[in-house]
Amino acid sequence: MPACPYCSTTKAHKDGHDRAGKQRYRCSTCQRSSTDRTGTPFESHRWPRDVILMAVRWYFSYRLSAANVRNLLAERGMDVSRQTVADWVQKFGVLLAEAGRRHAKPLGRRWFVDETYVQVGKRWAYLYRAMDEAGQVVDVLLREKRDLESAETFFTQAIKRRGVVLDEVITDKHRAYPRAVKQHAPNAKHRRTGLHRQRALTTKPVERSHVPVKDRLRSMRSLGSVPTGQQLLEGIELAQAVQRGDVRLPDRGAPSSVHERSRLEVATFSWLASGLRTAARVA
Ligand SMILES: [Zn+2]
């Protein structure tokens, strides 16, 4: 017997099916009825959770447009509009990315921070990204401008989301960084490449890590706006964290073949989605 999503007692019994053919339960304590989607962000959607999740995962993991995903679903007999696919990826990319951060491998205290540019509409916007010394991406932030405010917002968001006390920050010479680091990571040592000329000290790893993201963006004509771009980038980064194994279903070792790897990615997405909750509506 599943727990009632409204009152959390376990006295829910089977009570027929809803319009989508889903098993419905009725709670003998509070008398409300529910399905396994009640209280989850999948509740308001017509399509089953697994279909939505497959579409979202395809979109973020491969170089597909929303129209490509629509066509792949149509091949399997599921008629969904391109706009519906776009709505799903915007909504669920952010939610899954948030779940991914909660279940990621422990993050290092030495961050490499860099910014790159991506096209938003007809203009260029700046994408701030950081990674730790093990190559795990810390956070991403898309901004209209490359300035002190953007650098500060990036550090604020990344530190808040990841809850890490920084030991060291490595950046390029961009002049906003010294103040941003001093303000938001006052106890961290800040090293700027190109000034000290130490061989080991370089933002190359994070610069290289921009490449798969930019590759993924190339198959979209451009991002529509900074806010929607941010939503998509969060989903893209999550898919890549899952591919790298930085976010992985617990108790699973490294996959033994490419096929096993693909199935592990599917299972990891499904596991992240199974934990998504919205506050249960009080009927
Ligand atoms: Zn109840």
Describe the structure.
The structure is a single chain. The chain has about 280 residues and is an alpha/beta fold. It folds into 3 domains: about 1-40, no CATH class; about 50-105 and about 245-275, no CATH class; about 110-225, Ribonuclease H-like superfamily/Ribonuclease H (Nucleotidyltransferase, domain 5, 2-Layer Sandwich). The protein is built from 8 helices and 8 strands, in the order βββαααβββαβαβααα. The chain has helices at about 50-60, 65-75, 80-100, 150-160, 175-185, 205-220, 225-245, 260-275; strands at about 10-15, 25, 35, 110-120, 125-130, 135-145, 170, 190. The strands form 2 sheets. It has a 5-stranded mixed sheet with strand order 6-5-4-7-8, sandwiched between helices. α5 links the parallel β7 (about 170) and β8 (about 190). The protein is globular. The mean pLDDT is about 90. It binds zinc ion.
